[in-house]
Automatic annotation (TrEMBL):
Residues 150-237 form the Ribosomal RNA methyltransferase FtsJ domain. It holds the Pfam family FtsJ. Keywords: Methyltransferase, Transferase. One of its GO terms (molecular function) is methyltransferase activity. The keyword Transferase applies. GO terms for biological process: methylation. The keyword Methyltransferase applies. It comes from Neoroseomonas lacus. This is Methyltransferase. InterPro entries: RNA_MeTrfase_FtsJ_dom, SAM-dependent_MTases_sf.
Length: 302
């Protein structure tokens, strides 16, 4: 019997399998990028989303399948994989899920959304609840192709949308590993005061934005005990995750930052042990967002 399911981003199935193994959840089988488990849901950072109340439902006919879902609740997202025509016919019998791109900093949708997929012509897996309010965990934004100097801003938009908080006007931010300036652009547009730290220079247009100041030096050379405390510490530094963990701990211990949003970047093998250390920090949130590459986002809020 399947009781939970976990959707990996393309190419990250092995990382998700390792998460589930570490959390003690067995994988019964893979259904495309969806790991089906007979165990109760666990926390799995590499999942784009978890289906937390999965159950198998008979689909004797398209109409009967759609009726079974509508009896449970109104809104259902479809993970399409097999029996394309039949599953599309079934999806057409359900209320459409609005897929309008989000306009940052608009909050994530709060409406209740379940998920379903056809496992066989006569059987589906459905979960009335899942961890992401977006279809298949995919957050799409109305993009800005003019302002930001890199596409990294989408990763920060997603992280801030996901945690449901963002710096406000007048709040202070340190943006470590800021160059060329996508994250600094996001923060400055929110009205925050940003100190961008990078060994490389910031894009000139970003450096000139109101509220932005630059320090061209290594983020690891800053001593948090000597710095003016900030409301938010951001890091998108390219470095080994254990080095980032040391940096985050130093800033936490010094009480020099209230909120943290950092990217753990992996080169080659994923460092699951260090990811687990980040996840174990009380109050931490660790996730693989739709806009993340081979990296996880860590957030810790006051
Ligand atoms: C992925 S890029 C950051 C992109 C940026 N968040 C944006 O939105 O444009 C990683 C950055 O980390 C910087 N970096 C690497 N080592 C660093 C260090 N020790 N101190 C500060 N920055 C560092 C690199 O120079 C590079 O600009």
């Amino acid at each position: 019997m399947i009781r939970s399911a976990y959707l990996a981003a393309e190419g990250f199935e092995a990382d998700l399998a390792e998460d589930l193994h570490r959390a003690g959840a067995r994988i019964d089988t893979w259904h495309g990028r969806l790991a089906l488990s007979p165990d109760l849901p666990v926390t799995a950072p590499w999942a784009l989303e978890a289906w937390t109340d999965a159950r198998e439902i008979a689909v004797p006919s398209v109409k009967a399948g759609a009726d079974a879902l509508r009896t449970i609740q109104r809104n259902w997202a479809h993970y399409p994989l097999l029996h394309h025509r039949r599953s599309m016919l079934l999806a057409e019998r359900l209320p459409p899920v609005k897929a309008r791109p989000l306009v940052f900093p608009e909050p994530a949708p709060t409406g209740h959304l379940g998920a379903w997929t056809l496992l066989a012509t006569d059987r589906m897996l459905a979960s009335p609840t899942k961890t992401s309010p977006f279809v298949n965990g995919e957050v799409h934004f109305a993009e800005d192709r003019e302002g930001p100097p890199s596409r990294a801003y989408l990763k920060l938009w997603e992280a801030l949308t996901r945690i449901g908080r963002h710096p406000g006007p007048g709040e202070t931010c340190l943006d470590l590993g800021a160059s060329p300036g996508g994250w600094t652009w996001v923060l400055a547009r929110l009205g925050a005061r940003v100190t961008a730290v990078d060994k490389a220079p910031l894009d000139a247009a970003i450096a000139a934005m109101p509220g932005v100041s630059c320090r061209q030096e290594s983020a690891f050379g800053l001593d948090p005990r000597q710095e003016v405390p900030v409301d938010w510490l951001f890091s998108d530094i390219i470095c080994y995750p254990d080095r980032l963990l040391g940096l985050v701990r130093r800033w936490m211990e010094a009480g020099a930052a209230r909120n943290f949003v950092c990217t753990l970047k992996f080169q080659g093998e994923t460092d699951h042990a260090t990811a687990a250390e980040f996840a174990a920090i009380p109050g931490a949130c660790l996730f693989h967002g739709f806009h993340n590459k081979h990296e996880l986002t860590f957030a810790l809020l006051a």
